[in-house]
Design a protein that fits this description.
Elements lengths: L1 H7 L15 H5 L4 H4 L7 E7 L6 E8 L2 E8 L3 H11 L8 E3 L2 H12 L7 E3 L32 E3 L1 H11 L16 E3 L5 E4 L4 E4 L3 E5 H13 L13 H5 L23 E8 L4 E5 L4 E5 L5 E4 L2 E3 L2
Length: 310
């Protein structure tokens, strides 16, 4: 097991061959999962296939309560990985991660785990230090010539057609619905190390955000943030669909997301204040650069809160 001792910094890595992407929320994010995973420091490792790109990739995931990190890509034979994806059948647009099959499991044991062969493994980049010191943005005193836009805010129930219409109305660069969108924000650094403001929408945003949690837990977290007056304010809230889409960039930035690098990369997809008609919950995914919905009964997501400046 020399490979995983080096890669995972643990003498006895806990590889869970039964774990799949489908089971992770119930295990690590919902209340029921804490009965199975007793400690927040406990880490479980499992293999899965990332099918978001043109070429599917076999990856090793490190998982814990409120913790997820891709540790490495495993260079398994491409034909074997593609066949596993093909045999998994069609999945929804927002679900492009797949469990491994028995063939890949046997290949991993024989070629990677038992011999400890590092040549098959490409370690993922270490997460960047999340203490973001400089944004490269103008300060709050900057005079920017912009055309203010008043975006819809507050809770909403949206169909797919509603989202398409919203994207087109404001020309947001949603990579699925309008990749050539030209909406442009004008961010300024508030100088507090915590927030930036958009002169176009009149919104102040958290540069970081909250960890993955359930919808109910996120509501409690918003109440806590306001009670403690984050950045000196007590009117923080979840963004509307339009407000979250207004942060999208046309191209991926240095944080590998369709998002300005002044924001933390640790919140790749965020809750918005919108449910889906006929059912489900809407999110904005900065990693893929688009709005998407989830039909999960206990949806989990990250939070990045905003507030309207007076």
């Amino acid at each position: 097991m020399a490979l995983f001792s080096k890669l995972l910094n643990t003498d006895i890595p806990n590889i869970d061959w039964e774990m799949t992407p489908e089971y992770t929320f119930g295990t690590f994010e919902s209340w029921g999962g804490k009965e199975r995973v007793r400690s927040k420091n406990e880490r479980i490792y499992y293999f899965f296939i990332d099918g978001w790109g043109e070429t599917p990739r076999l990856c090793l995931m490190e998982r814990g309560i409120k913790h997820a990190r891709v540790v490495a890509e495993i260079l398994a034979p491409e034909e074997m990985v593609r066949r596993c994806v093909a045999e998994a059948g069609k999945v929804a647009l927002f679900e492009r991660t797949y469990p491994i099959d028995e063939r890949l499991k046997e290949w991993l044991i024989k070629n990677v785990i038992e011999p400890g062969d590092d040549s098959w493994v490409v370690p993922a980049e270490e997460p960047a230090d999340e203490e973001i010191l400089s944004t490269g943005l103008p300060g709050p005193e900057a005079r920017l010539e912009v055309q203010p836009v008043d975006l819809p805010h507050g809770p909403a129930e949206l169909s797919e057609e509603d989202v398409v219409a919203l994207v087109r109305r404001y020309d947001f660069p949603d990579q699925d619905r309008n990749p050539e969108g030209r909406f442009t924000h004008a961010l300024v650094d508030n100088g507090d190390g915590l927030t930036v403001s958009d002169r176009v929408t009149g919104l102040m945003w958290q540069r970081g955000g909250t960890d993955i949690m359930s919808h109910r837990a996120m509501r409690r977290e918003v109440e806590r943030i306001n009670r403690e007056r984050f950045a000196g304010h007590d009117d923080w809230r979840l963004p509307s669909m339009a407000e979250a889409l207004s942060l999208l960039e046309r191209e991926k930035s240095a944080v590998d997301q369709y998002l300005h690098p002044c924001f933390s990369r640790e919140q790749p997809f965020v809750f918005v204040e919108a449910t889906r008609s006929p059912g489900g919950y809407w999110f904005v995914d900065f990693k893929q650069g688009r709005a998407y919905w989830s039909s999960g009964t206990i949806p989990g997501g990250f939070g990045r809160l905003c507030r309207k400046e007076k």
